[in-house]
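Hi Q.,

Before the meeting this afternoon, I wanted you to have the zinc ion prediction in hand. No need to reply - just skim if you have a minute. The sequence and ligand are here:
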Amino acid sequence: MNYVLRASPTWLCGDELDVFDSVTKSALEAITNVKIDGITWAQASLPVSSGGLGIRRVAELATPAYLASVHATSSLVSAITTGTESYDLALQMWQAAAGAELPPEILRRTQKVWDKALVQKTVEVIKNTFSNDVTHCARLLAVEQPESGKWLNALPVPSLGTLMSDESFRVAVGLRIGAPICNPHLCIDCRLPVDEYGHHGLSCKNSAGRFIRHSSLNEVIRRSLVTANTPAVLEPRGTSDVNDRRPDGVSQLPWRNGRRLAWDVTCVDTVALSNVVSSSIKAGEAARKAEDEKRRKYEYMAHEYEFAPLAFETFGVSSPACMKFLRELGARLKNATGERRSFEFLLQRLSIEIQRGNALSVTSTVPRSDGLNAVYFVL
Ligand SMILES: [Zn+2]
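Predicted structure with the ligand bound:
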């Protein structure tokens, strides 16, 4: 399709492009079993790096693809023909849609540059739509962070643990694009109301997902350390203080400056009542706060261990110290295995575990006696 968009003036056929996009949207709805329309479709069709699902709309790509192609082939085309009528028209359409300055001459052969202006416009429209809703503002800020969409870039391979179940995938898609994922109901554990977005489950104190997520995130870290030639154990004995505090794991060999590594994982909810206001102002605030708390909690170990507070958020953002640690772990994995994408793969694994935990948290609020049909949208 990208070839067709680049090689012909498809932007003259707006209706046909819309038909193509509506087929894509219907397929996406059928595959994910999530209602996608209006503003959620606008977000879903953004690139992953801008908070979308990376399922692009051809109507939006038509002018960037064509304009970039014209620039990339201009010398050859001008040797054959002199007409620039189509180009001028496409440029007008792009300018009307993007409302932006022309890209610098040197970058005009790159489709992404033309596309970026339109993507930014769409992001603006989505943010304006939700400007009075702190929960959606917090969600939109979080999903724009590069680490939050890593699960969408992972190849689904069962033997690598990167294949998400249909249900995990459905919930992850719904949470990311702000689509309704369940019918409103009362949480089976605490009897508090759960709205159509299912957010309550993410912060419910009895949520099943948080325990499983905690242990699976720890297991990914431990296994990565082992692969990076730093054997490590979970729930280490002999590291607790008088208050019985104990980190989630320690390395058995020195990590840096002759000191062993100790780490503790937490995953806080981006849109929980206690976090949502700060999350709506700056992405990652909840994780940053959790990271500070962890650091205070494990201060007693600081003289003996290199402590890494690993704070994640339900919407996929990681705290600064967490990212710093993961970058270093990624580099050591690369050295040990020779795989240059080690850091990327590590982020993907962690991102998937967060989403699996989210899905379990959301689904565990459902009254079991109602059965799935009563509570979930089944297309
Ligand atoms: Zn609850």
